[in-house]
Automatic annotation (TrEMBL):
Residues 169-179 have a biased composition (Polar residues). SUPFAM superfamilies: Homeodomain-like. It comes from the Bacteria. This is Winged helix-turn helix domain-containing protein. Residues 157-179 are annotated as: Disordered. Transmembrane segments: none annotated. It holds the Pfam family HTH_23. Residues 97-155 form the Winged helix-turn helix domain.
């Protein structure tokens, strides 16, 4: 399938799709049928039928891109305010620890901006602006790294069971010595 399912497109992908539609218009003007156009442009016949109807009603202008399907919920100015709120940290907004979760960010957006967004939309918006999800390393405050390293090097090899040596085996589920 040429087009991905769902999701907003980048300006580059929108221009690419518009170019495909305009190529279809040229083929329509040349008198080619829907199936031939679909085969040549590697799109579905249904799309070509829809484009042909639009082309017959409004010409090439009807096949031109009309811009993004929807405006983003957050403008750059609003996102800058959200970013300032995120920098303050979750404790400043009433949560008991310093961990931002998507659910907490959703609640913050609702409280601060009176907007509702899905968790996936919030994740996509944060990703577009350079944020990434991170899981904090949870370690005890009293942790002694030298003691842990010593245990891993000295004690663990004694506790760990030795690996079986590869060699001739038996398909039997019982050991040879038990027969």
């Amino acid at each position: 399938m040429r087009y991905p399912q769902g999701g907003g497109l980048t300006a580059e992908r929108q221009a690419f799709r518009e170019h495909i539609r305009l190529q279809a218009a040229e083929l329509f003007a040349a008198g080619q049928g829907n199936a031939a156009v679909a085969r040549e442009l590697r799109v579905s016949v249904r799309s070509v039928q829809r484009w042909r109807r639009a082309w017959e009603d409004g010409g090439e202008r009807a096949l031109a891109s009309k811009g993004p399907a929807s405006r983003p919920k957050f403008s750059e100015a609003l996102f800058a305010v959200l970013e300032q709120e995120l920098v303050k940290g979750p404790v400043a907004h009433g949560w008991p620890d310093q961990t931002w979760t998507l659910a907490r960010i959703k609640t913050l957006i609702g409280r601060r901006f009176h907007k509702s967004m899905t968790l996936s939309a919030i994740a996509q918006m944060l990703h577009r602006h350079g944020f990434s999800h991170q899981v904090p390393a949870r370690r005890a405050v009293e942790r002694n790294q030298e003691a842990v390293t010593g245990w891993v090097k000295e004690t663990w090899p004694q506790v760990e069971t030795p690996r079986r040596r590869s060699g001739a085996g038996s398909a039997s589920k019982t050991r040879q010595a038990s027969r």
